[in-house]
Structures are given as structure tokens and as C-alpha cells.
Design brief:
311 residues; mainly alpha; 14 helices; 80% helix; globular
Length: 311
């Protein structure tokens, strides 16, 4: 049985495992103690072997990628380098949990950019969710309430916002260049190599790059690259197109929620009450914009009717 066959047989399990792999990203970064550029480079370095191996298998089975797909994947890698670098800086300022929540604002950024650039008008619920999510970002920044967690939560929110915009750019470009759902690993592998190169250049210029991270902290970078950059993204990209839209949205939203819980339990992060309310605003706003509420209500009514009929 091939990887495709295994995921086709259990796409829900594969997607959940992928989301949980990515949920540990911020935890692994914090535990590594690496600088933002160093973690960016080594995340990609250790994620590449698996991606390249799967991409080579895809090429043998389906043929080489078009030249245009290569160019778009390289551009996507530039966006992803910005995403990782600013996300790592956001973690330093506001913690892994809150920074991950802020990065997930990309869902609304994608909708707005698609509206402005591709003339794809967002839904009314998406537009209504924007002020809710922005209010959540203000709460996370520490401007409201006392005892905000983080070295500089306001700066962390700015970095988190740049993270969201950068990740939105990555998703829009990589989706445009990787429309062939049979071989998602090829474009991701090329983008990962591009990200690593740009991260190395930025780190060398800024003096933020260490080519010899210390052990055992280096082990966290290995876990970071293997789980987050390769296994997690592969499982998600292969399984989500095979799942209903409702389940897809729920699985994607589970990742930042789990990361917040893990950061509190494993890293001792302690967001204030106002910041946790901001998390609820951001996650709730994204859920309001993305979850097909009509289908959920219909499914709930059908389930209730089924129980009544069998009762």
C-alpha cells in the first residue's frame, strides 16, 4: 500500500496527525533556544530529505513539474522565509501560543488579498469577522488589561501580523503553482530549499545565524524540521482535499488551540485573562468566517432526528 492509498483510507486520522505535528512547532522552537534565522535554516534543512524523497517518487510516477511551478515555488519560499523569521521573532516577544494564534490570522488575510488581487469577493461572514479578529489582536497586544504575558507583546503582535501576511502570500503562491493534487511534495520541497537559502542569507547579513547549534538543543531542531516542515505539511496537504469542508476547517482551527494549551502546560507560558480573551476572539472570528454554519446546523438537526427515530 502506498502513502496515497494509506491517506485515502484514513484521511481524518492523517489530517489530525499532521495538525498535531505542526501544533508542536512553537514548542520545539522555544526548547531549541536557537535564534530566529538559525531555526529557520535548520527547520528546512532537516525537513528537506523526506520532502525530496517523496518528490522524487512523485516525479517517477507522474512526471516532472512544469518549469512555471518551479518558479512559483521559489517565490513561495521567499514568502515562507519571511513567515518563519517573523514568527520566530513573535514567539520571542509574546510566547509560542499567542504567536501561533496571531499567525493563523492568515486565513482572513488570504480572503482579503484574494479580493483585492484576484477579484474574489469574500463572504459577508468573512468581512464581519475582520473586526472581531482585530479586536482579539489588540487584546493579545496587552493594550487592554494588566499582566500581559511576553517580553514585548505589542511588538509580538506586529511581528505576528507580518507573519500572517507572509504566510498568506506563501499559500496563495504555492496553491497557484501546485494545482496538481497528486504531487504536493515537489513544490513544497522547492519552496523549502528556497526558504533555507533566504534564511541563511538574512542570518548571515544580520549576524543571527549559527551553523553549529549546541546539543542537546540541536535535537529539538531535528524534531522541529522532521515533524513540522515535512511530515506535518505532507499529511495535511495530502489528506485535507479528501475531507469535507466542515472537517477541514475544524482540523485547521485545532492547531492554534492545541499550541496555546501546550505552551501553557509545557513551557509555563501564562497569558493574561485579556490575552486569553483575545485568543477566543481570534479563533472565534476565524471559525465564524470559515466554518459552514448552515451545514453544521443541518448535520446537528439530522443527528438529533436520527436519535429520536431510534429512541
Amino acid at each position: 500500500m502506498t502513502l496515497f492509498d494509506a491517506i485515502a483510507a484514513r484521511p481524518r486520522l492523517a489530517a489530525l496527525l499532521g495538525a498535531m505535528c505542526i501544533a508542536f512547532s512553537g514548542i520545539f522552537y522555544r526548547e531549541s533556544g536557537a535564534s530566529p534565522a538559525t531555526a529557520t535554516v535548520f527547520r528546512c534543512l532537516y525537513g528537506l530529505p523526506i520532502l525530496v524523497a517523496v518528490a522524487a517518487w512523485e516525479q517517477r510516477r507522474f512526471g516532472p513539474l512544469p518549469r512555471a511551478a518551479w518558479g512559483l515555488a521559489i517565490v513561495a519560499g521567499a514568502f515562507f522565509a519571511s513567515d518563519l523569521l517573523f514568527w520566530h521573532h513573535a514567539i520571542e516577544q509574546v510566547g509560542a501560543g499567542l504567536a501561533t494564534v496571531l499567525g493563523n490570522m492568515q486565513i482572513l488575510v488570504v480572503a482579503v488579498v484574494a479580493w483585492l488581487v484576484l477579484a474574489e469577493r469574500p463572504t459577508t461572514r468573512t468581512l464581519a469577522a475582520v473586526p472581531i479578529v482585530l479586536a482579539g489582536a489588540v487584546l493579545i497586544s496587552g493594550l487592554v488589561g494588566q499582566g500581559a504575558y511576553g517580553a514585548n507583546p505589542g511588538l509580538g503582535v506586529i511581528f505576528g501580523g507580518i507573519t500572517a501576511v507572509s504566510y498568506a502570500g506563501y499559500l496563495l503562491v504555492i496553491r497557484h503553482g501546485g494545482r496538481d493534487l497528486r504531487r504536493p511534495a515537489g513544490p513544497v520541497a522547492i519552496a523549502t530549499a528556497s526558504t533555507m537559502a533566504i534564511g541563511a542569507i538574512v542570518g548571515a547579513v544580520t549576524g543571527d545565524l549559527s551553523l553549529v547549534p549546541a546539543w542537546p538543543e540541536h535535537g529539538w531542531l531535528v524534531a522541529y524540521g522532521v515533524t513540522s516542515q515535512s511530515i506535518g505539511y505532507l499529511l495535511i496537504s495530502l489528506s485535507l482535499p479528501r475531507l469535507p469542508a466542515v472537517l477541514t476547517s475544524m482540523i485547521l482551527l485545532s492547531q492554534p488551540v492545541v499550541t496555546v494549551g501546550l505552551s501553557i502546560a509545557l513551557l509555563g507560558e501564562a497569558p493574561s485573562a485579556a490575552q486569553l480573551l483575545g485568543v477566543a476572539f481570534v479563533i472565534g472570528g476565524i471559525a465564524f468566517a470559515t466554518l459552514p454554519l448552515g451545514r453544521l446546523r443541518s448535520a446537528a438537526r439530522s443527528a438529533a432526528g436520527g436519535r429520536a427515530a431510534t429512541g
